[in-house]
Amino acid sequence: MADRNHYINVEAQRIMERFPEVYGPPPWSIKKTSLACGFACGEGWYPLIERLSADLVDIIREDGLTRFRAQQVKQKLGELRFYARGGNERTAYRVAQAQMEAAETCEHCGTRSAQKKSLGGWLTTTCDSCAVRLLRSRSWQEQHPVLSRGHALSLSLNLISATCLVHPHETDCTGKPLDTAVWHSPQKRRELQDAHALQRSHPCYQQSFC
Prior knowledge:
Helix content: 40-55%
Radius of gyration: 17 Å
Structural class: alpha+beta
Strand content: 5-15%
Number of helices: 8
């Protein structure tokens, strides 16, 4: 394995290095690609991402897609998003298959009996057991260190976008002023403030708006 990238989960880095035709060779610069933050999703989806990557390599070789390159892999609104350029209908179809598989696979443990749920404002595809565990924790960033730093940032962004807990003098994740105000509880206010702090301090901040 190449030198450790501390913004990429160890398992995500292993997968990315195994398939350079999909992800490009390391190192992954944060100035050039969102892959510098690895996979912004739970490890329960890693096996299906690895299978997807292996199949994409076959298609790339068979169809001569020398310009294919994954741009970003993440969870958004509880769904798997796999952004790439230089593909064709076959790669698009295979990505769509992986997204359908992810829609019924727990993002956290990989169990194939999951569905999309909203947990305190976070949208995630999860099994019932993981949902209970997550709801008992104060926040996913603090209680689940197995999540990559990129995923922790993605979760904070989902908290901002999936709730209306904003202050009239606050700004959104791009710095634009917000004009709605629904502060339901001190706990939700703290969660929002924590999410803002995490966003602004993280090197992957500018890479996560798409």
